[in-house]
Write a structure and sequence with these properties.
The chain is 4% helix and 48% strand. It has one helix and eleven strands, in the order αβββββββββββ. The strands form two sheets. It has a six-stranded antiparallel β-sheet, with no helix packed on it. A five-stranded mixed β-sheet has the order 4-3-5-6-9, with no helix packed on it.
């Protein structure tokens, strides 16, 4: 537990484009995959009401200076900057990139490194 808590962390803020007050902050731990989706199958619940979002929709992973996203076998797919990434494996994302999952397109921002 203490070793896990000592690992570096990065907060990734996902803000829905064109939707007011729809933001999710994903706390990444360096080297640990975080599943993101609609229900408790995922470590992070992005939106429990979005029926276009799969239980585990995508996975986010941070190592060094890079954050990666890949589709988690979702029904409706995951897109980064308008490109469907389902068949591409891990795709590097940067602050300001867009990520479409479920019914929404989200803008990504890094909040802090620890």
């Amino acid at each position: 537990e203490a070793a896990y808590n000592a690992l570096p962390r990065l907060s990734v803020r996902m803000t829905a484009v064109g939707v007011r007050d729809k933001t999710c902050v994903i706390k990444l731990v360096e080297g640990i995959e975080m599943t993101v989706g609609r229900n408790s199958k995922a470590k992070i619940i992005l939106d429990s009401q979005d029926t276009r979002l799969s239980g585990v929709h995508f996975i986010m992973f941070w190592v060094g200076n890079s954050v990666y996203v890949w589709d988690g076998g979702s029904k409706n797919g995951t897109a980064v900057n308008g490109v469907v990434v389902d068949h591409l494996g891990r795709v590097a994302v940067r602050p300001g990139d867009s990520l479409r999952a479920g019914s929404y397109e989200y803008r990504l921002y890094w909040e802090d490194y620890r």
